[in-house]
Each structure stands twice: as structure tokens, then as C-alpha cells.
């Protein structure tokens, strides 16, 4: 390196060094250097009151966070979406004045975006993560956005901590590793030191965090909202989306392999289902609570880390959403879609949930930077189906051409229009809740129970679901380098269940807790995926065939599979036509080079004498992997010895019969079960 280059490099290093900041051990300040006495709670009118706009620290922190990434979303960056419609089963007039919830004969257009929370746009679909479930209703009163997740609770109770949470689970800032994963030190350090996250962590470590498809996962509004009827009477409400196909998940090994083999697995699944006419359906359910019963559940209903157990507050099913059209352009629609909890219609209102209050600010603020200014509502996917009129003007990307002189209220030159609309004629009026209290940064004592519902969730799981949760904790914490953090996490979850904590401790090599546990013995069966809908519809079966297969028998089986809603996918030695006996031919879409067992829900092996030794080995590997993932396996007559050699004969979910009709029925029944957890897998 010559002297000139050395000088330039030193100068550049000196220039960079003046911007280096060491935060460790320093006092917390705002960006203006003001030392802050509190960074845990937003400023509220009373401990359970609404967040105040004057909270400059909250607004600075959230604004800075919202603008940290361009143009990709900070969270929920990887998404996929579809169009559809919502239809009501029965009028909800007694509870809400929202027009789209009044008339069962009206179909309301919707746009739904599913997403992962953690990873960047280029990450995989099948990572362990919460999934976003955001629905935009294009109603005759304007757009209504129900922006939720596939998990009914959240990590934190107050939105002021949202930047801290996301910073912790995103890749670590020194090396930007790992991508789309929480298996690292900073996330688990956050968990151990913010124990309000305990309930959410139990859900994230469960099978709920690795769904089989977007079509087979629940959606939740997370927060407590309000319904308000024509008489001004309010009910607290929580929203649920119940998939008609039931709630089903991948297994951990399967999700890992899919991330490499088909990182777009969930995208492909949703797109192909709609293209093939298997339209995903979800029923909308609501939990309703009278205002006078606000304090009767034993938990604070404003706490977003808590559920209302369905056995105590039943879910009332009120309508169904059907997704029946894929987008025409991913960027123009899916990527530019802007959701906001503040997009409501008359009859839907908010509560003082401090996480909800913060989201009401943050979502709108985020769109300003991501979509380039205040006119993102004019992008086609975001435009309401009704006209909009106000005095807002100009700004980046303005498309509306407003005529006339007047752009202010009040006025006489335009007859004081556009003018407000009274509530009795459809104008939005906020619910008149009485609010009083001292300005305070604090949290109600009713928010301090962090473990009872985490234990409730654990108690509600089946043995196999508990095993999966333990294994998830073991995997995640085995990746953590800090012994202190690992010990803190184990000690924390001893408050949930001692068996759980000790199983984790033994695996990761830290001290098992000597005491702990919980006195919560109740459970909620609705939380277990074993208590879900089991249906064969839309499930895939890998049909492995070679030349010379028994044409009539295979055709009989395939015809009945299709009639049951199952999708056969043909795998052979080469792609193209595979000839069987009696003039029956099949079209092979895949070979073992282009298809792996993790991409299918079940396997059907057809006997044929023409199989090569190499192909037979590939069949054995394919089937063994499907077997280890507890999937149904069917084999045509004559393959008994082959099944025995591969140690899968006679196991649960392995179907073989000389009687064709019986075999077909048993195979369909097995596929309907999805998994056979009592199988002996080595």
C-alpha cells in the first residue's frame, strides 16, 4: 500500500471513529440527550387509561423504530396474499352498528395478507415464527382492517417496548446473524428479562409456530376491541378466524428440510390451492363480554398477553371468509398493501390496551416512510370501494385531482363542505368512555401475572405437543452462547412447569431448578391441535409408480382419492407419461430429483416389477422419511415383504390390504388423520 492510500484509509477510519458510540453502562436518554426516568411504560391517563399524545419519549422511540428500514417492512416483511369475500351467517345488529355485520345477503370484498414476523423478504416460509393474518374488508362505510396473528397473545403488554422486542429477535447487529430465527442470545436475553413474554413464548415453542399451511392456521385479533350498537351500548370483543380445514402443523425436521427444498412452500400451497379451485375458507368468530363483566375473568382484558379461554367465553361463529382469487401483481397488491388498526367503521371501537394504543400510532407512521408519503391510501389495493372527500391535499404521489378553491374547514365558499356526518346518518363517533387519572408511567397491578396462562397453555397440550415444546426450547437454547442467559431462561420457565424447565436444563447443561412450578391445574381443550377438524380435503399424496403398474386398481384408488378432495401427485423415474396395464396411463409431474417427501402429506406406493434397483432405494428413502414424520403410507398388495424389510409394516397409519375397496377406504381415513403420533419412530 503506498503512502497516499495509507493516509486516505487512516483519514476514513478517523472519520468513522468519531461516530462510534458505546452504549453499555450509560444512562438512558432521548435523541436530544434528555435523561429519562422510565423506559418501560408509556404515559397514560391512569394506570389502565389510554396512552397520551403528549408522550414525547414514546413517539420519538416508536417513530425512529418505524423508520428503521426502507422500503421493506421492519416486521412482517415476507408476506403472501389473496382476494376473496366475507359473508355473514346472522345479523350482529344487537351488538354492533357496523353495516357489513348486519345483512347476511351482502358479500363484502376482502384482501388478506399472511406473513412471517421475523425474517426478511427473502427468508423461508417454514421457519419457527408467529404468522401475520391481516384482513382488509372493503365495506360500504370504508375500509376496515382486522390486523392480527395466528397466535392470540403477544410478547409484550405496552407498545413502548415493541422496538426493544423486535431488536432482540432480529439478527444480532454486530454480524446480522441469524436470519429469520430466534435461536440466539439477544432474543432469549430479552425473554428472561421481560417475563411478561412467558405466555407468548409457550405458543412460539409449540407447533402453532410451524403451520402446515396458511389454509390450516387460526387467526386472532389479539387485542380486546369494542362493538357498539345503534343505542350506544358496548360489548368487549375478541376476534377469531377458524380455518374450515382445521389447525395443523409441520414437524420440526420437516420444516427445516422444506426451508431448503421449497422455501416458498406456504406461498406455493396458497397460490396452487386457489388456482385449482380449492378455495381456503375461514369462519369468523367473536368472543363477547358485557362491560359489567370486565373484571370477572380473573385476568385483565386489556392485557395482550392473555386469552379469554373459550370454555369460559365461547366463540360465537358469525360468518365465513372465502379466498378465491390470487393477486395479479405481487408488488402492486401484496407489497403495497397498507394495513392499519385505525381503519375502522362505525360500530367498531378501541379499548385502552396499551399495546393496541401504540399500534394505532405506529402503523400509520410506518406507511409514511415505506410507501413514500401520506397518499398511500390512493394506491389501488388500499383504495376504499366508496369515494372519499376531505380537505387533505398534495404530498408525494398524489393522484386525486381536487377541483375548486376550498381546502379547509370551516368555509362559506363551498357551503362548508365536505361536511361532517352525524352518527345517526352513518358518521363515526368514538365510544364515550369515561377516562380520568393522574398522568403516570406505570402499569396496573392486574398486568403482573405473567405465568398462570403460560401454565394453562402447557396443561392444555397433549403429550406429543408437550414433547414438541420441550424439543423446541432445547433446540433454541442450545444455540445460545451465554450460560447466564440459558440459566435465566430455565429459572424463568420453572414458574410455568418444573418438568418443562428441568427437561430443558438437562439438555443444555445448566443447573436444573430445585423448586418452582405452578398451582394452576386448569386447562383449555380448545388450545390443543389434537382437538381440531380432521379432513382429507386438499391434502396431497405422493403416488410412486413405474411402467407396468396395475392400471385398473390404481385408477380406482386415485378416482376415490380425488372424490375425497385429496390431490394425487405422480412420481416416477422420468417426468411424463407412465404406462400401466389395460391402457391406463398416468402423467408423472415429479422424479425423486425434483420431489421430496416433506412436500407431501402422505405416500402411496404402487407395486411394479419394472422398478430399477436404484429407484427402489429411492423409494425406500422417500418412504422412510415420510414414516419418520408420522405421515400416512399406503402400499399396493404384494409389498408386505418390502414394508417388513423397511421396518414399517404393521405400524399405525401404514395401510395395505388385498381388498381394493377396503384398502382405499382405509387409506383415505389415514390421510384424514394427518399424523400418527403413536407410531414407533427410531
TrEMBL record:
Its cofactor is heme. Its EC number is 1.11.1.6. It catalyses: 2 H2O2 = O2 + 2 H2O. It is an enzyme of class 1 (oxidoreductase). GO terms for biological process: hydrogen peroxide catabolic process; response to oxidative stress. PROSITE patterns: CATALASE_1 (PS00437), CATALASE_2 (PS00438), CATALASE_3 (PS51402). It comes from the Bacteria. Residues 29-417 form the Catalase core domain. One of its GO terms (molecular function) is metal ion binding. GO terms for cellular component: cytosol. Pfam families: Catalase, Catalase-rel, Catalase_C. Keywords: Heme, Hydrogen peroxide, Iron, Metal-binding, Oxidoreductase, Peroxidase. PANTHER family: CATALASE (PTHR42821), CATALASE-B (PTHR42821:SF1). Decomposes hydrogen peroxide into water and oxygen; serves to protect cells from the toxic effects of hydrogen peroxide. This is Catalase. It comes from Ureibacillus manganicus DSM 26584.
